[in-house]
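Can anyone check this?
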Amino acid sequence: MSPMRRTYHLDAGEILPPLARIPEETRKIAMREAVKVVARTVREVAPDSGIKHKRKLNKSVRYVVARDSWSARVQLTAPHAHLVEAGTSPHVIRATKMAGNLHVMVIPIAGHLLLMAAVHHPGARANPFMERAAALSRDEVNMVFLEAAGEAMDMVL
């Protein structure tokens, strides 16, 4: 499995229309508004990762516009974001805590404590919410840039 990017560029997925004719200041404003749209959509579609990680994904959404205003990125700071997006294959989780001379995991089950050296994890299905957010926000992002192009034309005229 290839490593998943935690950062998604708006221009990588061909979301953006050509920006060369838009003046730099207008382009910066448009890029900031467009990346806000994508970040908002990511927050809306980010799945809830269970009780322990409640709303961590949507709270970890950040966005940055490059200084030259030619690109922007939406990124997640939650350390498990790539595991949710790309999924995981079945694997063994080994114990990391020491109990005497043994490495063991202590697992509470129905009022009892179970000591285990390793646990088999069945894996998790991929949930490509970042791709889904990019697709859902594509039309609104295009509208932001069309409005910016219209404002640029108004300034020229």
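Reply from J.R.: I decoded it. Residues 1-6, 12-16 have pLDDT under 50 and may be disordered.
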